[in-house]
Every structure is written in structure tokens, then in C-alpha cells.
Design a protein that fits this description.
CATH architecture of the largest domain: 3-Layer(aba) Sandwich
Strand order of the largest sheet: 5-2-1-6-7-12-11-8-9-10
Mean pLDDT: 83
Order of helices and strands: EHEHEEEHEHEEHEHEHEHHE
Distance between the termini: 14 Å
Number of strands: 12
CATH topology of the largest domain: Rossmann fold
């Protein structure tokens, strides 16, 4: 599993880093920390505030493990060629993590576009990013960054609301194929937060569809086999938005939005962005 964490120097990113660390402890994923700043003519590669934040995130993440238990321990020394000027390269001794890949990167330009490009080029399975709490969902320095990333990413996205506790997970599914990876990501979130789980079967039209009921049973069996208790219910797809809007503020809303998902067909990707912007909860979009 490869996780991309996108952060800046604001408190919501520090809060999202805690979620990344918990996930990494459980999954031993390959991890990339990405900072994004506006393009500048300055020769300095990274703005001081962002540089300090990335340094702090790196140290906080790496120091979350004790001693040699960390798969990200920086113990692998090797020589690499590094560009110095346009026609000059220098061989330098660098240290990398031993068991699992851990990197810190910087991109310049539009934040949402930079995050999406990094995820695509790096082959990320999950993007983790934070935003301001409640219904604002802001990312400083860019308009609609969390909304666009959640709506347009090809991989799964975990959007963490600042200082938003999670006590229940609402997982919305339809009758389409549910990947093993998405089940495991949801399982990790349940384990991390010791959260209650409610699986909502989304019915595409009037009358109970056998496929929706079958999928509910399959997902229920998966979690019960892992000693995770869940509740289930069925809703009509026309009632889904009002149901989501009326739920509590200490929930994680999980949506299966694969290419063949009924949710993807009934609700365009812009709906995901609107949901992220207006909702009070953290959101996990699974693809």
C-alpha cells in the first residue's frame, strides 16, 4: 500500500498527520509527505514556514515508533547522483529508510493539481489530507482544494476534518463489486478509532434489490469474521443526501465510488466535492 500525505503549515495538516501515522502503524505502507507552494521566482526551493512544517511532520512521523521497531528507520546509506546545475551532477551519500519507503517531496503550482499529479505519478493507493472543521472545509492558499482532490482523484481519499473526533463510521454501498483493498482500509479506520459501524445499502430504485441485500450480507460477514459488530439498513438513492446531511458530527462518512458504482452514476464527481464542502464529517472516498 502506498499513502500520499498532502500537507501545509496550518493546524489541520498536523491533525491529519496523526491519522496518517495511525494508518502507517497498522499497515506498514510506503509513505510520501508532500508539500505544495505557489510557484515563485525565488531561488529558495521551499518557503520557510512550509519548510519548518515539513521538517516537523517528518520528525513527528519518524519518532512515533520506538527504536528499531520502525519500518521507516533511516538506516540505508547509499550514493546517488544529484543535479547541481544544468550540466553538472555530483555524487552524494544519502540515507533512506530500510524496510519501507518514506519520502518528503515538494511541488509548486496549483495545490489541487499538484496533489493529483503526485498521486497519479507515484501510484498512490490513498491520499490523506486535512481541512478546516465543520462545513467550511478550507485549505489555505487554494480555493476548493479538498473538494477537487476528493472528486477527481483516481485513488481513495481520506479527508480529515480538523479536530473532528470519530465515534461512528457510516459506510454507503450499492450492489457493485467491493474491492478487498477498500474493505481493509475501512477495517483500519474501525480499528484505529474503535468506532461503531453502520453499513447503508443504497437501493437504486423502488423495491429492494437482491444484489444490494446480498452485498450487505457479504460485507457484514467480512466484518463479523473480524469480531467487528455492524448495523445495517437500506435507503433509497433519492434519500441518500438528506440522510447524510442529518447524521451526527462525530462520524466518518465512507463512500464506495468506483467506476461502476451506482453512486458514481447517479451523482457526478461534483457531488462529492459539494458533499465534502458542506458536510460536517470527515470523509473517506473509496475507489
Amino acid at each position: 500500500m502506498r499513502i500520499l500525505f498532502a500537507g501545509d503549515e496550518h493546524p489541520y495538516s498536523a491533525f491529519a498527520l496523526k491519522e496518517l501515522t495511525r494508518l502507517a502503524m497498522n499497515t506498514w505502507a510506503d509513505v510520501t509527505l508532500l508539500g505544495v507552494q505557489a510557484a515563485s521566482a525565488s531561488p529558495r526551493p521551499v518557503a520557510p514556514a512550509l519548510n519548518l512544517a515539513l521538517n516537523r511532520y517528518r520528525e513527528t512521523f519518524l519518532n512515533s515508533w520506538e527504536g528499531e521497531d520502525s519500518p521507516y528507520a533511516m538506516s540505508n546509506w547509499q550514493y546517488e547522483w544529484t543535479p547541481v546545475t544544468e550540466n553538472l551532477w555530483e555524487e552524494r551519500l544519502v540515507c533512506k529508510s530500510g524496510k519501507k519507503d518514506f519520502r518528503v517531496r515538494l511541488r509548486t503550482g496549483n495545490p489541487a493539481a499538484a496533489i493529483l499529479s503526485e498521486a497519479r505519478e507515484d501510484g498512490s493507493d490513498l491520499i490523506v489530507l486535512g481541512c478546516t472543521r465543520g462545513g467550511e472545509c478550507l485549505w489555505a492558499g487554494g480555493t476548493g482544494v479538498p473538494q477537487r482532490v476528493a472528486a477527481e482523484a483516481d485513488c481513495s481519499v481520506l479527508l480529515v476534518k480538523e479536530d473532528q473526533p470519530i465515534s461512528r463510521i457510516l459506510a454507503c454501498l450499492d450492489q457493485t463489486y467491493i474491492s478487498q483493498e477498500s474493505l481493509e482500509i475501512l477495517n483500519q479506520m474501525v480499528t484505529i478509532h474503535q468506532a461503531d459501524v453502520e453499513v447503508i445499502g443504497v437501493n437504486p430504485e423502488g423495491g429492494l434489490k437482491k444484489e444490494v441485500y446480498t452485498r450487505l450480507i457479504e460485507v457484514g460477514d467480512y466484518y463479523q469474521d473480524r469480531n467487528i459488530k455492524i448495523n445495517t439498513r437500506i435507503v433509497e438513492i433519492a434519500d441518500l443526501e438528506s440522510l447524510i446531511a442529518g447524521e451526527g458530527q462525530q462520524d466518518l462518512l465512507a463512500l464506495w465510488m468506483g467506476k461502476k458504482s451506482i453512486l458514481s452514476r447517479f451523482f457526478p464527481r461534483e457531488w462529492v466535492g459539494r458533499l465534502v464542502a458542506q458536510g460536517q464529517t470527515s470523509v473517506l472516498v473509496m475507489r
